[in-house]
User: Fold this.
Amino acid sequence: MLGVLSLPELPCALGLVIVVGGPQTRVGSHRQFVLLARRLAAAGYPVLRFDYRGMGDSGGETKNFEEIDQDIATAIDALQQACPMVQRVVLWGLCDGAAASLLYCGARQDARLVGLCLPNPWVRSEASLARTHLKHHYTARLLQGAFWRKLLSGKFNALRALGELWDNLKLSRGQISIYKQGAPFQTRMALALRQFSGRVLLVLSENDYTAKEFLDTASTDRAWSGLLQRPGLQRVDVSGADHTFSRQDWRLAVEQAVLNWMETIQP
Assistant:
């Protein structure tokens, strides 16, 4: 695996590992991971960002986020080998990088892990996507004049739209089987968060379906009941932001939130 270490002049005992999410590299969308790592390093925190196996410049077969526990463990080992002063570690992961971080936390019970930073966690399922579409897409469209003008003009396939709406209703109510045997990753994420004794920073974008889907899941799924109110969890909402915090002001808001939160973990 290939990684890049951002090393401060005077490293502290708390380090951070960035877990990439989705089909991207250790650079991140809009160089977000590069800029975040450099800013944290300037504040004294060693940061390792890496491509897990099959991703970016790293070799091996392509894996999905549910299969990278060993890769994350190896990255933490590498950070400590390069920076022996690092005794405690935070995992930072966007989207399914956040999901992978929680899954690692639940599977490994790694004593070095003292914090999780989770921007826009991925909890996608057919049912959760259906609920999100119903709540944030179809309802909004019914209030749009353009929708009704298109419908009355005959340019809109009403039967197809009604069929999609009906399918979403059935999915959202659990009337279509969506899980294979065994606990789904969303449930394992919730269990890991419930058992984790460290600090958690949850960062959510205002204009992002993944973030909305996460909030809907957290409010409707019994496995997630009460977890957003658990002790040690801090939530930051970034007004107007999209999924990858593509504007400079959004990116800077995330960086500052992470810096402020990291200070609360320092002894």
